Amino acid sequence: MGISIWQLLIILLIAIVLFGTKKLRNIGGDLGAAIKNFRQSVRDGEEDTAKSTKENLNQDADEKSTVIEGKVTDKQNTKV
Fold first, then answer.
1. Is residue 24 within 8 Å of 15, Cβ to Cβ?
2. pLDDT tens digits, one per residue of 2-20
3. DSSP letters along the chain, please?
């Protein structure tokens, strides 16, 4: 049911006849550059997300580690 090697070769031969090898080479180069740029963008996005997550965690840790200064006194129990 899948495409055999002979069918792929026939499709490739038709594409070469219609477009020529130079045009197909340019299309392949453009497609490769587009995929490379896409992968780079995804990688940059993941780094940005990781960096912002790390900054948020550091900010949360700073907020949680607040020191409260004061004087401790003993509260006396008085009955009313």
1. yes
2. 889 999 999 999 988 998 9
3. ----HHHHHHHHHHHHHHH-HHHHHHHHHHHHHHHHHHHHHHHHHHHHHHHHHHHHHHHHHHHHT--------PPPP---
Residue 67's CB is within 10 A of a number of other CB atoms, namely 4
The per-residue pLDDT for 74 is 72
Per-residue confidence band for 31, with pLDDT thresholds at 50, 70 and 90: very high
Distance CA 21, CA 15 (A): 9
∠ at Cα 43 (42, 48), nearest 5°? 95
Identity at 44, one-letter amino acid code? D
